[in-house]
Amino acid sequence: MSTKVTGPNLLEMWNQHALARIWRNISPATLPWKHHNKKLEFSVVSYNILSQLLMENNRYLYRNIKDEYLRADRFGMIIKELESYNADIVCMQEFDHQIRDTFATHFGKLGFENIYERKPHIPYQEKDDGCFMMYRRDKFRLIKNASLGLYKSGEKLLNKPNCAQIALFECNDGSQVCVANTHLLYNPGRGDIKLTQISLILHHIQQIVNPMQQCGGVPVIFCGDFNTCPNAPLYNLMKYGKLQYSEFSADKISGQKGSKKVTHTLAPGLWDAKSMEFHEHGLVARDDEELTECRETFRSLTQGSSYMAQAYRDLDCSKCSDLYPYKQGSISHNINFRSAYDHIDSDGRTKEVTTYIQNDARTVDYIWYSNHDITPQNCAHGHSCDPHCRSPVLVLKSTRRLLTKPELSNMGKLPNAILGSDHQALQAMFTLYSDPEMNTSGRN
């Protein structure tokens, strides 16, 4: 597989692309703790590299693209592009399993390990791609890998072949960071499935990082193609930690165009908590003891009152939503996420875009991260903690600028002579501050 870009015009295009995709510095966060004197800087790339099989099965979407830009040797350009970013962790989506050996061998020589999760095998919905994550072995050691096929037999909201991967790393200073990677369902009209998929992933992330512990648990970076637009309901679930989904119809959840109009709103109790093994509120599993405690709290609130539904609202909990008829119609999680990108270019007017297919240019890819807006009284996730907090703190340092729709139009719609995918790669630089006393592994 060739990685060469040749010819004076191609070289000029590549140089223009490199100059346009400059680093944009982020205003530094205030770190009030003197003891956070160890830091690890690393960058993360998220990139949907366009599955060859998916492209060939949807060739009509690329009818205005030259055939030479759609051949499998375009992955050589993607390798060259990734080399130029010099990232420490790379999360890819639509990664065909046939190219794994090529990428693993090439980047293995550059110091990378990798993990791969192929989309689940479902009759008549066979997929050839999945999620692929690479990480530098001299900075990170994989200590846990949760691979998720977002499919459950008999569950109508988990009947599509999508996947995710969640990796827990130990950094070379002994601290930990969690990195997740996913590709959610595209279908703009099935927001109910997308909500279920993202909720399942968030549920598993929370089980790994334990965000309810003091100081917010392990920092999280969540990459992927979410197939949702900025400020859409699913986006707001990620950003604000809660969504009253019963206010929306399924076709409004992701903010995408192209879906058939749906007139009915999503009903409360989007999924059955018992069959899914976790509840909407907090996306956590509930054991029998918690359910018993919840019943007692419910009885104390409703005693002497005929307004049972209002009392259940006051309880603000769905621990026992399967036991009582009232359900909230909302989803919540406990990780304080923020998007690394603002979705507006530096001029303050032009929208950033991460994908450009035909004339449709929009943002659907994200790098989310946790642990921001830190103060000693509001540590990581709004929990109070003492000024001697020893939790690692993840701070966004900079992001690599995305090309705008006009710039991409001038260069040539995607894929083109120098860019091998119909998406742009996102890249964010982070600093992980940690307490030196946390280093118990003896690794340097």
Number of strands: 17
Mean pLDDT: 82
- The low-confidence parts are 2-7, 301-326, 374-384, 436-444
Report the sheet with the most strands, covering strand number, pairing sense and barrel closure: 7 strands, mixed
The gross shape turns out to be: globular
Helix proportion range: 10-25%
- In N-to-C order, the SSE pattern is HEEHHEHEEEEEHEHEHHHEEEEEEHE
**What is Rg?**
23 Å
**C-alpha termini separation:** 36 Å
- Beta percentage is 15-25%
Structural class comes to alpha+beta
Strand order of the largest sheet: 1-16-17-2-3-5-4
Q: In DSSP terms, counting alpha (H) and pi (I) runs of 4 or more, how many helices?
A: 10
Provide a descriptive summary of the structure in words.
By secondary structure, this protein is of the alpha+beta class. It is built from ten helices and 17 strands. It has helices at 8-20, 52-57, 74-85, 100-108, 191-209, 233-240, 273-276, 288-302, 308-315, 405-411; strands at residues 23-25, 38-48, 89-96, 112-118, 129-136, 140-151, 159-171, 176-183, 220-225, 242-243, 331-332, 338-339, 355-357, 360-362, 365-369, 393-400, 426-434. It has a seven-stranded mixed β-sheet. Strands 6-7-8-9-15-12 form a six-stranded mixed β-sheet, covered by helices on one side. The protein starts with 7 loop residues before the first helix and ends in a 10-residue tail after the last strand.
Please render the helix and strand layout as text.
Layout: H1 8-20, E1 23-25, E2 38-48, H2 52-57, H3 74-85, E3 89-96, H4 100-108, E4 112-118, E5 129-136, E6 140-151, E7 159-171, E8 176-183, H5 191-209, E9 220-225, H6 233-240, E10 242-243, H7 273-276, H8 288-302, H9 308-315, E11 331-332, E12 338-339, E13 355-357, E14 360-362, E15 365-369, E16 393-400, H10 405-411, E17 426-434
Parallel strand pairs: 2-3, 8-9
Antiparallel strand pairs: 1-16, 2-17, 3-5, 4-5, 6-7, 7-8, 9-15, 10-11, 12-15, 13-14, 16-17
Helix pairs in contact: 8-9
